[in-house]
SET domain-containing protein
Amino acid sequence: MSQNHPYRSLQLPGDAPFELKPSPGKGWGAFATRRINRGATILRERPLFVVRKSNEQITEEDVRTAFQHLPPSAKQQFSHLRDNACVPFTHMTEAFAENSFAISNSVGPQASISPVHGLFLLHSRFNHSCIPNSKIPNTNNEIIASFATRDIMAGEEITFCYNTDFECRNRHERHQALRFICDCKACLPGTPFQQLSDMRRTFIRGLQYLTLGKDLNGQKQGSVSPIIVDPKLKKAAEDFSIPLSSRLFYNLLVMYLLEEEGLLDDFMAERLHPSILNIKALFITERNARIATLAMAQETWLEKFCMALRLYGRADVADHAVAEGLRKLQGLSVEQ
Ligand SMILES: [Zn+2]
């Protein structure tokens, strides 16, 4: 039956390193047809069409109008789309919601004012994993691209993570957000890896709260199941009076935990590493600066963290100015 499935008619680029086929329990998925090296581009894709509205504002009429402007071949491609690979969609908005990505809405001030969603026939076939082997980085143009975050073997399913803050969400929280049951390594219940994974991700969330003064989604934690239970520590995080020494080893510990979890891909490392180097550069007290430099010179994240632990409990001459600077930054962002 899968031989006649409409997804067989979706057009793949000639050099695509994957094929589309049924994925047990997940409808269809993309599977590597040859080895894809870490960092290699898997697919660059133009949207079939875009709708320049936020998700909640997109109407049946919006999608229908965009569809009607398509050439016949593109219309036919759109008509191949199936709800979870099974049945035709009953509404255009459903087809759009299940096969679209937000583009251009996460970069730059203008972008956040004018959200754009594009319909991507092929990237929408990639299934989710909480420990994925590919990533679709944010883009500020309409073409999206996926890259291998580790070596992918021929025959392996290509996956990416559907949400942006799953590194600090436990299994239960992830499933609430996904609205389906993920069966990746981090989600298979009752395994030692899954239990460790929940601990690591909860720990990462706590460490991020200590350094950012809020959750990744911008929320302050209330009294219901707070991640930081010590009120003094929570207050210190929220008014940015966490000392520089603690900031350094919290950040290094996050890197180590991300690595252990299988999430520290090159994109994430590239994003997080500069802020750690910035922290290292802020120390003024000579002994602290020396230890921070020594820590960053270590080879692994675990070694860097262990070295930075020598700073534990140490105040730095820069602490006051750093706290003031962070408060000012926070004040500015609140005013905007
Ligand atoms: Zn999962």
In short: The radius of gyration is 23 Å.
